[in-house]
């Protein structure tokens, strides 16, 4: 399918998902990168307490808190 045909279908609101190759799709700035951080045990204990209270994992809590702080400073 040519780009003009694809654009026309999209603009007309037609379903174009069959024309897309999702195996190569990437979310911009969403790829994970592993980072190791050492915290004092009292910090880990506090994180675990808050994570348990919220019903989420420690990792999820750290990700959310860091993301929120980064949004604040930008």
Describe what is shown at a glance:
The protein is an all-alpha fold and 74 residues long. It has helices at residues 3-11, 41-54, 58-73. It contains 3 helices and no strands.
Shape: elongated
Total domains, how many?
1
Low-confidence stretches: none
Question: How many H/I helices?
Answer: 3
Q: If you compute it from the alpha carbons, what radius of gyration comes out, rounded to the nearest whole angstrom?
A: 21 Å
Largest sheet: none
Average pLDDT for all residues: 92
**Structural class of the secondary structure composition?**
mainly alpha
Distance, first to last CA? 42 Å
- SS strand fraction: under 5%
What does this structure look like?
The chain has 74 residues and is mainly α. It has one domain. 53% of the residues lie in helices and 0% in strands. It has helices at 3-11, 41-54, 58-73.
């Amino acid at each position: 399918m040519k780009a003009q045909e694809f654009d026309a279908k999209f603009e007309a609101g037609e379903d174009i998902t069959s024309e897309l190759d999702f195996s190569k799709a990437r979310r911009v700035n969403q790829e994970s990168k592993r980072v190791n951080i050492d915290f004092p045990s009292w910090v880990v204990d506090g994180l675990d307490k808050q994570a348990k209270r919220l019903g989420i994992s420690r990792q999820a809590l750290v990700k959310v808190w860091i993301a929120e702080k980064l949004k604040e400073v930008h």
